[in-house]
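Cross-posted from the bioinformatics board.
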Amino acid sequence: MARTVSAPAEESLNGLVTVLDFVRTHGSSTRPRLMHATGLTRAVVTQRVAELVEYGLLAEGELGPSTGGRAPRLLRFRADAGHLLVADLGATSVDVALADLAGSIVAHVEEPYDIAAGPDVVLDHVNELFQQCLGEAGPLSGQLWGIGIGLPGPVEFGSGRPIAPPIMPGWDRHPVRERFADYDVPVWVDNDVNVMALGELRAGIARGHENVVFVKIGTGIGSGIVVSGRLHRGAQGCAGDVGHIQVLDDHGEGDVVCRCGNVNCLEAFAGGAALGRDAENLARRGRSQFLAAALDEKGSLDASDVARAAAHGDAASVELITNAGRRVGRMLAGVVNFFNPSLIVIGGGVAGAGDLLLATIRESVYRRSLPLATRDLVVKRSTLEGLGGVIGAATMVTDELFAPQRLAQWLDAGTPVGRGELAGHR
Amino acid sequence: MARTVSAPAEESLNGLVTVLDFVRTHGSSTRPRLMHATGLTRAVVTQRVAELVEYGLLAEGELGPSTGGRAPRLLRFRADAGHLLVADLGATSVDVALADLAGSIVAHVEEPYDIAAGPDVVLDHVNELFQQCLGEAGPLSGQLWGIGIGLPGPVEFGSGRPIAPPIMPGWDRHPVRERFADYDVPVWVDNDVNVMALGELRAGIARGHENVVFVKIGTGIGSGIVVSGRLHRGAQGCAGDVGHIQVLDDHGEGDVVCRCGNVNCLEAFAGGAALGRDAENLARRGRSQFLAAALDEKGSLDASDVARAAAHGDAASVELITNAGRRVGRMLAGVVNFFNPSLIVIGGGVAGAGDLLLATIRESVYRRSLPLATRDLVVKRSTLEGLGGVIGAATMVTDELFAPQRLAQWLDAGTPVGRGELAGHR
């Protein structure tokens, strides 16, 4: 049956997305490789490549490897065709960066601050740091295309507003996007753990995995879920809130009240705040000379003090960390049975504290999960620490910028959506 | 920029899938409605419709509603263009059906049997029931296009083989597909809970939901997970195994060993087998006259006896059911925090036993989950009981038959993949 017809704009869109996504995620390609990988014909690949070169998103490069005949020309994604401003806001520090369209970091600033200072103070400061990054980067080839923000609390992704965030007083339903309206580019806001999961997927050890759980163990505990290679946000956008799953010990215990108001949440036992609290108790009760000395010196203790003490062989601290790891492992054993991921990535400040925690988590997961679900399961520590948030925020922005629906808007408008003039904001 | 080029087969495939999927899932449509809903132009819709009529998958019907001008002609999905044979195998009963390409049941047989009789006996019997269904249905207009089987244990979806299924002795890695090779059509096999979840999604209360957890509480406990409108099978295909998540009580207790070898699994407390075991113990220890009388009469007790006793006000049975519901609710509270579904469907034999279980589950989920995650969460009982498995098995087959990759094979071959002659199997 003949099926050669003239293709309308709506239908050619898919070929365009396919070609752009392949070159974008692989960095470069050739026309024959594109034909092979996408199943599109030579005529369509040629046409789509020509359009993307015209849009300034692809560039012809040097000759690529020959497979017998004339060597094909390399096509390169023009990551410098545009830029992104991104910020990863934690509880006590902020990372701000300028990234290109491939999500690579061009300039980066990290600073201690306090999220509890409220949205006016904090977002004004983020704006100043954006300007500082632009200043450091010097003259740029492309325009600003988008802004991405990660916040340490629940965010309604559709509106970009934090919803009743426990450690962010004054931020409830704050219109974060509007604070960046002057840039005249789209702004996406999500919670920091989702953003970090995207960072792992794009640039960390989750690359190439389809079903991933990223767990952040910092002051609190949260997770970001990747299903079939895409972030799963859930019906209300609050998927991944594993810190408030109840995880009991084998033989019962007194109730511990969590900051959420419920009792015996994972976070109330195994989060960084809980570890600091328990360490101070041990120090005061004379159960650890090491922790007592640290408390005398600093006046308070946190998870890094416990990790340091455990590394020096302090028995009470080793027990604190193994107890925390066991609880995290119990929660994850349930997640593994339910979700059957191929990879669990452990990140956040407490995770960076040492191998003991990771080993305990692993042991607990393998012991309590279905054998088939753990057959090829990998549990690893994040290798992106520090930059994971800003890389993930940049990935969030590029994923949204290059989504099919948005590309359809470009095709209609004849120009990319992002129009912000970098120069106008220096 | 002009983008009018001649479209090759690979690219026109998407339009074909879009048109077919829209008419198939809506039952009927018109060309103007298709243009509006899919964004395809009049020329492409006309061309794709002509192709699908030629394939025998769409038919022109009577005139549809006019929106001003000439009334457009109705296009109808020809559900009778082909047929499917499906079977839902439980622990103690089997449902076999003949379905059309819309997943509607044309003939249905249900019988008690024993899955533990092994694959030879059971699958030969399924084959006989297939023939019985064909006999009941009488002459059919279309050929056989595919076969779908649900099994009560873990299944490797890619190979269609059960993997170490606990209640299916002799079935480990059995090549189920090969038993149906004579039909010369593709065969898909999955576990019964995934299949029932698909049934809820296509024909039950999960219609239109994007993120759903279907929980089957029968002899054992399992779940099927729908993410973004599609079944999530996980990395090893064993996602949803919630029956073996550890769920402890608030104040500690003796360990209960589960049939999986681990201790304190949800199923060991709240599954149908556990309820029967606990009911028999209560009867023997004189804690319930009602249960003791039933045990005298029947020699053994199951979940339906407990439900009946509870409905008659037997205090010990009410406590058994509320304890079971509380454990299921605790497990689901964790699932809600992690996954943030919009709907939880409770099905299976034990779920059908009464409202007390559902009410306790609901109360427990709402109390233990994040408020944002339960804001619009619905927890409901399945309304498909009985037919859910075979409708789901038919949905599994049509989802696979009409998947884009398979449609590509049709386009290459010029004919649908299913070629089995129904007449040859009578």
